[in-house]
Design brief:
The complex is a heterotrimer of chains A (214), B (199) and C (203). With 214 residues, chain A is mainly α. Helix content of chain A is 63%, strand content 2%. Chain A has one domain (10-205). Chain A has a two-stranded antiparallel ribbon. Chain B has one domain. The radius of gyration of chain B is 18 Å and the shape is globular. The chains are: A mainly alpha (214), B mainly alpha (199), C alpha+beta (203). The A-B interface holds A 27-32, 34-35, 78-79, 82, 85-86, 89-90, 104-105, 108-109, 111-114, 117, 180, 183-189, 191-192, 195-200, 203, 212-214 and B 26-33, 36-37, 78-82, 85, 119-122, 124-125, 128-129, 131-132, 171-174, 177-179, 181-182, 184-186, 188-189, 192.
Chain lengths: 214, 199, 203
């Protein structure tokens, strides 16, 4: 990989949040988080953890990039990611045990979230620590925004609440709660609709077509 | 004797539960990345599915042994994330080498899918669920096999449906992943219907 | 130095040792807290089956638990006594719910015939549906429910159905969770009643 000029911070932020949004553009990393999107609070905690882990892992990988031998870099990256995930897991267990129980195995599954490895490989390995941190952070944020939108839709239509507080219309007698939205199928439908919506907006914006995903 | 019978019964129940009512893909969304990207053709889906069943069964068992005989005695339970990943990666590498050496035919069929599996979150997810739910050794065998089988079933069904979709007129924004997710949603809906079967 | 064949091995080793050392140190520091959390969740559930522990601090709950509750090995339940007088029995129940394990405590009054409360310390049922078993609206139905010494001591009936004095209403829409919860509670209860020698009244 030839050394490339460092991207300006603004471009990194816009790419992470919108143009290269990990979920729509790349359909990456939905596995570890989609399962908890039926409650907004759980999703928020999960998203914060994921964003921090991604940003810090990218930062660490970037610091070590000149010393890491290429052939074992994947192992080193996995180790670094696991390190941060374990810290998050221990912190939750110690200071927020109810949340830790709610999230169950999904905190640990952040390790296999494709976004982490993807950002480390695509950006952090060949860029300085500062921009790498930004890249990881805003990719995480771009990802979080979608998941929070999904969670808000599911919780509102399925339970009539927002962060546990009743929402005027949805919790009233005129709204027949869509029970299926808090069940697993609801997650698939909501995500599909979000992707549909955003891809339609993209086609209007005429962003150069590009093949997403792996 | 009664104890063993009860365990075996529990194993069978867990096996069916993990295929139908608690399908790892359709209820916990694990392994979505490869599910969306490798479900275009039935043949490749079958190959990946078979590889997942094989790896999932054996790694959950290996992980069970490692967890209860290494980590628990040492009080290093929090290390499980790292250990499980290492075991899964090492196992996949090992299997790849073995079948490459002894069965080139099988390697042609399964080999290309093996590296994909290391990053399949369903494998790690199964290992983590097995710890959290405190399954016994015998039940773990049933669970690992069942979870793999459930995943394979889901991806096979999806590939079958998608092959027929190639000619269908799908709205532009929904093409590819969008429609796949909608179909997955319908499948999940159908699987919810199984929930009353097991008690 | 970086071209040497041993470099990757040494590098990997150093990184692993460094990160592991940090983690082990960190977990040492928090381990006690985590263990206390797990233990407290259980103790709060046991004590909470008799009195409202919501406003009570952990410390006090722990004190009550150690002083007033005694584990009875034979019936696998806790005997709740105050000033030498038995106040009730805490019977744990556990098993597979709709998605995952449900664990909780059923509090029984000293007469062995009346439920005094129910608490859960582990459940991950569907939020908004099955998970509402852990909400007050469901739990407050339990105090006062009569236990029938039969194969099905208490019942959880669909909402809007007529109840007899050993039944409560299920959470609407959470059929599976209710069916399983009923089974879990009754399994433990039947075993407990047997160990206490409670039989069907002759009248």
């Amino acid at each position: 990989m030839s050394p490339q000029p460092v991207k300006p911070a603004g471009a990194i932020i816009m790419d992470g949040l919108w143009y290269d949004n990990p979920i729509f553009r790349q359909i990456l990393g939905i596995c570890s988080t989609l399962a908890v999107t039926n409650v907004i609070l759980n999703t928020a905690v999960m998203c914060i953890s994921l964003t921090l882990v991604t940003a810090l892992s990218c930062w660490t990988v970037s610091i070590l990039r000149d010393w890491t031998p290429r052939n074992i870099r994947m192992m080193v990256q996995t180790l670094i990611m696991a390190f941060y995930v374990i810290i998050v897991d221990i912190l939750l267990k110690a200071y927020w045990p109810e949340m830790s129980r709610n999230l169950g195995p999904y905190v640990g599954l952040i390790i296999t979230n494709c976004i982490l490895m993807g950002r480390c490989e695509a950006f952090a390995i060949s860029n300085p620590p500062g921009p790498s941190f930004l890249d990881g952070f805003f990719n995480g944020l771009g990802y979080s925004s979608i998941l929070l939108a999904i969670a808000a839709t599911r919780e509102m239509t399925g339970m009539g609440t927002f962060l546990g507080w009743p929402v005027p219309f949805f919790s009233g007698p005129y709204w027949d709660k869509w029970v299926i939205m808090v069940m697993p199928p609801g997650a698939f439908f909501t995500l599909a609709c979000m992707i549909w919506l955003c891809r339609s907006i993209w086609t209007k914006e005429k962003v150069p077509a590009q093949t997403g995903g792996k | 004797m009664d104890n063993i019978n009860a365990e075996l019964w529990l194993m069978v129940v867990t096996l069916f539960a993990s295929v139908f009512t608690n399908n790892i893909l359709l209820t916990t969304f694990l392994g979505m990345c490869s599910f969306v990207s490798v479900s275009r053709e039935v043949k490749t889906a079958a190959g990946l599915g078979a590889a997942v069943v094989f790896v999932m069964t054996l790694t959950t068992v290996l992980n069970w042994l490692a967890y209860y005989y290494i980590l628990v005695p040492l009080h290093l339970e929090f290390f499980r994330f790292i250990l499980f990943i290492i075991i899964i990666a090492a196992f996949v590498q090992f299997v790849e080498m073995v079948i490459d050496r002894y069965s080139p035919k099988l390697y042609m069929a399964l080999g290309i899918f093996l590296p994909l599996i290391t990053v399949n979150c369903a494998i790690l997810g199964a290992a983590l669920f097995m710890v959290i739910r405190q399954y016994s050794f015998i039940v773990t065998i049933g669970y690992g096999f069942g979870a793999g089988l459930g995943w394979m079933m889901a991806i096979l069904a999806m590939a079958g449906i998608r092959q027929r979709l190639t000619e269908a007129r799908v709205p532009r924004g929904l093409r590819g992943p969008g429609i796949t997710l909608i179909i997955a949603g319908m499948m999940a809906l159908a699987f919810v219907g199984f929930t009353g079967v097991l008690k | 130095m970086r071209d040497k064949p041993w470099y990757p091995v040494v590098y990997m080793f150093v990184i692993t040792v460094l990160l592991s050392a940090l983690l082990i140190g960190f977990s040492r520091y928090t381990r006690d807290k985590i263990e206390v959390n797990v233990q407290m969740a259980f103790e709060r559930a046991v004590v909470g089956a008799f009195i409202d522990v919501k406003p009570v601090a952990n410390q006090q709950v722990h004190q009550m638990f150690t002083q007033q509750f005694k584990l009875d090995e034979k019936s696998k339940s806790y005997i709740y006594s105050k000033d030498g007088q038995v106040q009730g029995y805490a019977v744990p129940f556990a098993g597979q719910g709709f998605w995952d394990n449900i664990r909780g405590i059923l509090g029984i009054a000293a007469d062995k015939r009346t439920v005094s409360g129910i608490t859960f310390y582990e459940q991950t049922e569907t939020p908004g549906l099955g998970a509402r078993i852990d909400e007050n609206d469901f739990k407050k139905q339990f105090p006062g429910v009569k236990i029938k010494p039969t194969a099905k001591p208490i019942g959880i009936r669909p909402a809007a159905q007529q109840l007899s004095d050993n039944e409560v209403h299920a959470v609407t829409g959470a059929t599976q969770t209710s069916v399983r919860l009923e089974k879990l509670i009754n399994d433990s209860l039947v075993r407990w009643l047997e160990s206490q020698g409670v039989k069907e009244p002759s009248s």
